[in-house]
């Protein structure tokens, strides 16, 4: 049988078109699987959105499950003399602070150096040791700090040697208009840290170099900060004063009067509880969107009728409504602190009641939300419930893994069916090729016979 290189050439039939139609019909069998895969992918995306909302709610619950939140303190100040920050061990109270003097750093400038014109000129011919003198250096260990100076050192070399030693001063060079001076500034404030002078006897100055007897050294002794707290006099070498008020750090910014109040940080607690309610209501909004029924399958929620969502709502509602075991005088239910569960499933705050609880019952509020163990309070119970829901055996975690497994199974089924379709089309192509060749052969035979009959008729006609 003759071989056909292209379908339809031998027979004249549109076998390629027919094969395409058969291929399209066969691949139509894949449509239901594709639809099922897309459905599961949409579900996984919706589950991811739900998981994000659950995570945000868990974060808000965890913030309330921290007992230190209810023990935090805040400071407020009036006046511009100080800023204040309270630590955990601060005592509640009101403090009147009068800043009389700010702490300052001492400074010292040498007499003008005569005999040098540029900073490249050598100041010291024979190196040695330069002594920096302090009012009370190194915490009482001595009153001077040695600085090693090289031979032929310039003023810039001396400056760099002092700075490299990190001796409690910063050295620089000042041009007073008529010549150069070496200037030093104490790195710490306070009288005891003051730089008071320099002893050059341990080095040999270059010939012709000397210190001016008219433009003499300039010394400014540092000062300690002087203040009173509730009338008690306090001296500090730094403008950051710790210990004057227990657990409070005062940063002195100017001279004058200020009032410091150390109070419970009610704002942080209020923001945490408000954030908790808002996060839960946002979660309810996400669930409502994902399970919405519109009567139109095109716009209905992606998780409409989903059992995992119903389980999540049921478990969270159970924890919220169940409350906690409370001691006498404590809070057992959300409603006790001014938070109610509405008919639509969202939470609502009675701001007046909540403000009263925050202002007067933070210990009981801590026991209600945080408890004395990780899951002893309502916030801990909610966080644990969400963790379980997200686990492999939880409602949401199981739903996600189930959808992923179904997609994997459908993909395998899709691949098998696609292979089967490809094999079927290949078989059709072979059969069509054989058909095309057979028809082509039959056409050739027909043409041959027709020619023979024509020749016979012509011969008979001549006779």
UniProtKB/TrEMBL annotation:
<keyword id="KW-0975">Bacterial flagellum</keyword>
<feature type="coiled-coil region">
    <location>
        <begin position="400"/>
        <end position="427"/>
    </location>
</feature>
<keyword id="KW-0175">Coiled coil</keyword>
<dbReference type="InterPro" id="IPR010810">
    <property type="entry name" value="Flagellin_hook_IN_motif"/>
</dbReference>
<dbReference type="GO" id="GO:0071973">
    <property type="term" value="P:bacterial-type flagellum-dependent cell motility"/>
</dbReference>
<dbReference type="GO" id="GO:0009421">
    <property type="term" value="C:bacterial-type flagellum filament cap"/>
</dbReference>
<comment type="function">
    <text>Required for morphogenesis and for the elongation of the flagellar filament by facilitating polymerization of the flagellin monomers at the tip of growing filament. Forms a capping structure, which prevents flagellin subunits (transported through the central channel of the flagellum) from leaking out without polymerization at the distal end.</text>
</comment>
<comment type="subunit">
    <text>Homopentamer.</text>
</comment>
<dbReference type="InterPro" id="IPR010809">
    <property type="entry name" value="FliD_C"/>
</dbReference>
<keyword id="KW-0282">Flagellum</keyword>
<protein>
    <recommendedName>
        <fullName>Flagellar hook-associated protein 2</fullName>
    </recommendedName>
</protein>
<comment type="similarity">
    <text>Belongs to the FliD family.</text>
</comment>
<dbReference type="InterPro" id="IPR003481">
    <property type="entry name" value="FliD_N"/>
</dbReference>
<dbReference type="GO" id="GO:0009424">
    <property type="term" value="C:bacterial-type flagellum hook"/>
</dbReference>
<keyword id="KW-0966">Cell projection</keyword>
<dbReference type="GO" id="GO:0005576">
    <property type="term" value="C:extracellular region"/>
</dbReference>
<keyword id="KW-0964">Secreted</keyword>
<dbReference type="Pfam" id="PF07196">
    <property type="entry name" value="Flagellin_IN"/>
</dbReference>
<dbReference type="Pfam" id="PF07195">
    <property type="entry name" value="FliD_C"/>
</dbReference>
<dbReference type="InterPro" id="IPR040026">
    <property type="entry name" value="FliD"/>
</dbReference>
<dbReference type="GO" id="GO:0007155">
    <property type="term" value="P:cell adhesion"/>
</dbReference>
<dbReference type="Pfam" id="PF02465">
    <property type="entry name" value="FliD_N"/>
</dbReference>
<feature type="domain" description="Flagellar hook-associated protein 2 N-terminal">
    <location>
        <begin position="11"/>
        <end position="105"/>
    </location>
</feature>
<feature type="domain" description="Flagellar hook-associated protein 2 C-terminal">
    <location>
        <begin position="222"/>
        <end position="444"/>
    </location>
</feature>
<keyword id="KW-0969">Cilium</keyword>
